[in-house]
Amino acid sequence: MIQENTPTIKTARLVLRKFTLDDLQAYYLIMSDKKTNVYLPWFAVASIEDAMCHLHKNYLNFYGKPSAYRYAICLKEDNIPIGYCGLSGEENNDIGYGLRSGFWHRGIAAEAVQALLDRVKKAGYPFITATHDINNPRSGEVIKKIGMSYRYSYIEQWQPKNIPVTFRMYQLNFDGNNEFTYMDYWNKHSTHFIEEIDF
Questions:
Q1: What is the value of pTM for the model shown?
Q2: Which domains can be identified in the chain, with CATH numbers?
């Protein structure tokens, strides 16, 4: 597997790059957006200090790993972060993303995540997963748009919000082993099932 530390990626409209401390104000706008964060495990941040802690924990400290793919999503026109996408860095190879609500419904998330997918496939990752809250179907549309397929659903007590959430798990295999399904979410959570829905 190729080990890369968040190499910059460019698409038709976007630049995906590392977050830096200079991005703190833009990151605060993302993480304090209540619409953006309603379906995520954390609460919207209440202060620039909270945003700073979150930025260090989830991005700046993460970049010390030999293989890291966590990005600021920026428009080419100004290179200012309006969202984020990235790979978990764990065995689930989970892809996550978020976008300030003022930039929704323009195909930006799908464009960014597709570029991320192409990069991790090239790096030799055998598969990726992604999950979404069933109450957030637009996130599911992004997942399906990049070619991921539904595998199963499970209920998790989401922390720190401490609420039960039903997640749908999607997967895309790059190694040709299309029979393989990552089962850790299924095994970890006692309430799990396969929905009989046309996905």
A1: 0.95
A2: 9-193 (3.40.630.30)
